[in-house]
Sequence to fold (340 residues):
Amino acid sequence: MTMLVLFLIVASMNASKITGEQSLRDNSLVNFGEIRETMQAQIDMGPRIPGSEASLLFKDWILDKTSDTWEVNMQNFTYLEMELRNYYITKIGADIPEILFGAHYDSRAIANLDPNPFLTDNPVPGANDGASGVSAILEMMTLIPEGLEEKVGFILFDGEDQGSGGMDSWEWIVGSNYFADNMSEEQVNNTQVFVLFDMIADDELRLPYETNGNRTYIDEIWNTGIDLGYDDIFVIEAGPNLIDDHIPFKRLGIPSVDIIDFTYPEWHTTNDDMDHIDPVSVAIVVDTVLVWLTDRYEFTLSDGTQPTSENTPVHLEFYLFSFLLLGGARKSLDRKTRVI
Ligand SMILES: [Zn+2]
Fold:
């Protein structure tokens, strides 16, 4: 009986860490359950086709999600007589950020690659191709430590995925083109790197690097992933060469990286849904990018264990002290510091 109970406890602990083939390292702060929820919430809105009712639902949702610490600037613009909207999110009161993260939130209007010819005019649900990148950014926003928040900005792009007949006469990457075209000279000069999350929820995630990306930053991020034990995922080998939302930033001379697994079998089909993704994949990417980011600024991410650095920022020491004092009741503490 005891053995059985023990077995069940261990089994359920494993189940909380691992779904599909991949697992998140033990000390990660990233909450893949939360990632699953925010992905599901987007799917529940319906396809986030530009100009659609679901796209408006997304607006209300994202404003609600980001109201506490972050300021959401809506960038409204018109393309082929349709109202589109990018969201530019920065710490309230912060200056121009140094590092930008992006993802597209729209989903493709037609599943033109669906194996069933009767479904090719149906919309793509966009669990991987759309929702995964947005959920990565929401999780990043939750976990970036205080003091680093003002260094980063997030952009959620509309109109990425409607080229090649997705919507009539549309081009690809409409939202990111508009954003980049309207950056001030100061913004461009201040941006050290742009990092894009796209299609990172494949349940067999594998990330050869996208070859338009900047090799210096690719090596930094990929080596961080390898150091964390994700060496089956962050493979330093040349992958695809893509038109994606990083291209307009690269065109401005900003070093840019596209984190994407382009071998997703359900790409641009009606099966790009919650049954064909793994939120752990997204969590692994967020874990890696967070560690890369905090290493870069010599911040220590709290993982619930003792800090190793003597230069641990004061707020983390406070957090760890409070954590011990309150026995893990973190609800009353900074909501951005969370342990799964
Ligand atoms: Zn797409």
Remarks:
- Residues 1-19, 304-340 have pLDDT under 50 and may be disordered.
